[in-house]
Amino acid sequence: MPLNMKNILAAVKEVKSKSTKRKFSQSIELAINLQNIDMKKPEGRIQERIELPNPVGKERKVCVIASGEMALKAKKAGASLVVERGDLEALVGDKKKQKGLAKNYDIFIAEAPLMPLVGRSLGASLGPRGKMPTPVPPNANIKDQIERHRKIVLVRMRGQPVLQCRIGSEDMADKEIAENVQAVVRRIEGKLKRGIKNVRSVYLKTSMGSPVKVAM
After folding, report:
1. 125-149: per-residue pLDDT in tens?
2. Residue 127 gets which letter from DSSP?
3. Which of 3, 70, 128, 209 would bridge with 66, disulfide CB 3.0–4.6 Å?
4. What pTM was computed for the model?
5. 9-13: long-range pairs with CB below 8 Å, 24+
6. Handedness of CA 163, 202, 208, 152 (dihedral sign)
7. Would you state the torsion angle of the CA atoms of residues 166, 172, 173, 179, taken in this order, to the nearest 10 degrees?
8. What pLDDT does residue 56 have?
9. Of the residues 105, 129, 149, which one is the last residue of a structural domain?
10. 3-class secondary structure, 59
């Protein structure tokens, strides 16, 4: 059974009410603490890209790696950065630029035929961060892909039975934040052997605030 929407909304309201007013809109973060799982089995190595029902507020930086017509369409569609084949080849061996790209962009999409070159030029920088590009065919609607990927969050376990991700921002509607929370919890629940029974607790917090527990 997924988390009760009423309980999630109550936690969202409490998080917002406890938030100290800043000159910027703080992000809202989700933490899922797990229990009774074997860290050596697949359920202990969760890494999921989850498409949320609502954007997380602050626009996420999408880098598109493409050539020819797709590169042109990606620029027109508002990609944060378009890396073409020549640019990609120039990155081979330039670890500083590779790391800069991996650090400065949230999401990567690549034209499928370029994936082998992406692996050679950026694999060592993107792989450990869980940012390897989503491959798309040359005839893909890149505008739709960019819009969809701006709603995707990466959720992964890093040696501890805890999953964390940004779920929204405090200027979003409570219901939108709650829907995003529920989408992530449902996906993770489906990856666990005992479902929601493997979830010990769920917390929400603003980036600079204290955590609030969601009643289960």
Report:
1. 999 888 999 999 999 999 999 988 8
2. G
3. 70
4. 0.78
5. 9/174, 9/175, 9/178, 10/215, 11/204, 11/212, 11/213, 11/214, 11/215, 12/174, 12/177, 12/178, 12/181, 12/204, 13/174
6. positive
7. -20
8. 82
9. 149
10. coil
The reply to whether 43 and 112 lie within a common domain is: no
**Lookup: tokens for 14:** 């409490």
Strand order in the sheet with 162-169: 162-169, 27-34, 199-206, 212-213
Cα(62)–Cα(69) distance, rounded to whole angstroms? Answer: 18
What's 95's domain CATH number?
3.40.50.790
Distance CA 60, CA 52 (A): 13
Per the listing, tokens 């899922």 go with: 32
| Residue 87 one-letter amino acid | D
* Residue tagged 């790209």 (tokens): 101
Torsion of the alpha carbons at 53, 203, 166 and 91, rounded to the nearest 10: -130
The reported pLDDT for the residue numbered 60 is: 79
pLDDT at 173 over 90: yes
Each residue's pLDDT tens digit, 60-111: 789 999 999 999 999 999 999 999 999 999 998 889 999 999 999 988 999 9
pLDDT class of 213 with cuts at 50, 70, 90: very high
Q: Are residues 14 and 77 in the same domain?
A: no
